[in-house]
């Protein structure tokens, strides 16, 4: 302390000298800084400092100030200390890359470890993490950890355990049952297998967790039955989430003993038998999901479940008639029981609850409907014998659009606010760099998903939570809410800084922890949630270490004063160079200088995709290395890349120096930014920088349908998978034709443009030739003929009149390609003509045995094959007027799948096959295939690269 005292006196003398020379103002500022200098220093425990340095050396990326010798005294970003001991590490969304080393066991006083939203963190969790006996909070959400979850049974203080959205395999460790203080247990969205562990004489189990409130195990691969022993009347469980697994057996009757339950999700499993009658004892349950199982028997009496607001039991095989008492539950909003065996006469009575918004009973066996009192909301009875008798014009037998989540925070009406291209405008009209991520609500209890007041309440609660915890937050914005394929409500979140334009890393640590450890509590009707944040490019914050070297700060202060004088001179110079500066700004904001002279039109109207710089693209593809080259086409080459967020993408790069294809480039950006559907390839962003044109798509891992049909991908497509692919393609096209605004004609439907994701779900790709239809063009668009030979609509070819039925023709050819695995034109034979000549509806398989792909399976196993061929031939009728609409095609394929015992709304199975290793063998990658311009008579890639 003696040396420190001399240093302080020297600084005071320096300040007095400066007072005389530079005046009162400067020294007042300097002394303010000076007397904030701490008189004592916190010294980090040697063992803790060594452990943190081991973490630092093990990570490729780390917080900016993790380079000093005193993590507690500096302090390091994300490190919390009590006296000299490290007690918390909170580093969410930092872009960390590497593994978690075993040295973490040295942090013996550690209570909180949160490394969420760092997708670059992976590998196995070290077993030594199970020795941190003081740990109360362990959160590793949205990383890439794999392998088995280690034994955590010694963490007796653990309250919060969240390992969801990783790649953990193996079984659920029975030792978790020892964690008697556990409140939150989330292992969802991994690859966990095996049974649900319960206790025995020699082993603990989850039934011992009587104080745990949350069991979140959805989106895994758990199998076997749910043990009766798992539940008891002592349990305080409120959320039971076992959806999206492979559980079998019956629903245990002991479930009815857990009277604290509020949310039950057992959907998307293989459960059998009756729903236990004592489920009626669960008076606090608000959401009940039992869909996509193999249940039998009647829906039990639910009249005692007074909190019930959301009942979903679809594709579950329940039967008998529905009691009136179901519809009198006071909180009930939604009843979805379609595709079951419900029968008898539907009688809602006269006392049904006023809160009831939707009753969906489609595709059952209901024979009558007694409407004692007019039901003014949605009642859907299509597909029942009752509607067959009454006709499709009857009020409840017509297709009614269901409400969809489509909320986004309204764009503020800001006057003269012009943000730079990489900033966003906040709801309070400030240009800033928001922290971005996605909220997933696993069981929302409301059906009016477009109700803006609910989302506004969510925004208010988010902002209140952030500000009450001293987070530097100005406002929040919600975007693109939708119900995803897991039946979760998904909403993109933007969090805007209050003081600065960009959060620093300490801010992100605070915000991320508020969301990862459930400090934020949404309005109750949103239900349980989790958040996946993206890596944030934070500003460097020197607040924690700015006094480590005060002379340096003083020098910086003086230098800053000189800099101010220089800036004043530069401003004067800049005024004289205004026009030149504006040209530079235009070059840095590429769409401000979009060149309309080359046929590209005006500035694209963007809704979602982000702009990437050329340097970002170069870095994500390792300088466009040959190892990342996954295909090529007329447009140029396609590269696999990884963004700084860890997201894999496919990048279409136009040929260097090309000035063609501007119209297609702009069209694809504008249209794909407006369309969002699970059967359409999503546009992540684009690059229009340094003379480059690139489109950045989501990476679809299993290549094109053409590759699978040809055998190049190694993926076996049986009949059921082909039906699923046909349905996904049809749904994507139906969305483009009927739900996109404006409607869109794809114009290049072919097997090279149908991609298969990890579950072999179809995604329609390549929108370079698509055409929007305005109100004045609903019948047709006159345009030059473009498309691919073999899939091209002959009516369009002859008349140049493009309609949505042109896509239907290409889809019909695709259906024939699915059953034959042949290209549309192969060895001079046209698949449509060949099938039309062979077809004989009086013979087995319509006499098409000679052209069928044998890998589909035996003809006897192709249930619904004839209906499939009929649909294909309707789609390739010469006249567009005789072809079905795509929505009709969707219904036909759904009907075929039901005949085959399939659930049209179920996901396809996982496959481990990938096209990465085979891309060099087939350079025509699906993201960049050639089409044909028939006005020129040469491949369009030669004159209009996409």
TrEMBL record:
Entry's Gene Ontology molecular function annotations: ATP binding; protein serine/threonine kinase activity
Gene Ontology CC: plasma membrane
Enzyme Commission (EC) number: 2.7.11.1
Coarse class of the protein's main subcellular location: membrane
Designated name of the protein: non-specific serine/threonine protein kinase
Composition-biased stretches (Polar residues): 908-917
Superkingdom of the organism of origin: Eukaryota
Positions of region (Disordered): 908-946
InterPro entries (alphabetical): Kinase-like_dom_sf, Leu-rich_rpt, LRR_dom_sf, Prot_kinase_dom, Protein_kinase_ATP_BS, Ser/Thr_kinase_AS
